[in-house]
């Protein structure tokens, strides 16, 4: 993560949050378990700066 400042409110304090449970990302057309989604969040205004899956390899060969 290279972002050090919120692009919306310019606060400098950011945090990491993760989405689990029913918010898990699942690979298209593949059976099995998905991956948790993590977000880089501004702790000042709550803006979600970026989101990503923790286990990106689970999504290989899913683009048709």
What does this structure look like?
The chain has no helices and 3 strands. With about 60 residues, the protein is mainly beta. It has one domain (about 15-60). It has a 3-stranded antiparallel sheet, with no helix packed on it. Strand 2 (about 35-40) and strand 3 (about 50-55) form a beta hairpin. The chain is elongated, with a radius of gyration of 14 Å. The relative contact order is 0.29.
In a nutshell, what does this entry contain?
It contains no helices and 3 strands. By secondary structure, it is an all-beta fold.
Question: Tags for this entry?
Answer:
64 residues, mainly beta
How are the SSEs ordered, and which strands pair?
Blueprint (H helix, E strand, L loop, with lengths): L13 E6 L17 E6 L5 E6 L11
Antiparallel strand pairs: 1-2, 2-3
Assembly annotation = single chain
Count of distinct strands: 3
The description of the largest β-sheet is:
3 strands, antiparallel
Q: What gyration radius follows from the Cα positions, in whole Å?
A: 14 Å
The side-by-side strand order for the widest beta sheet comes to: 1-2-3
Strand fraction: 25-35%
Straight-line distance between termini: 29 Å
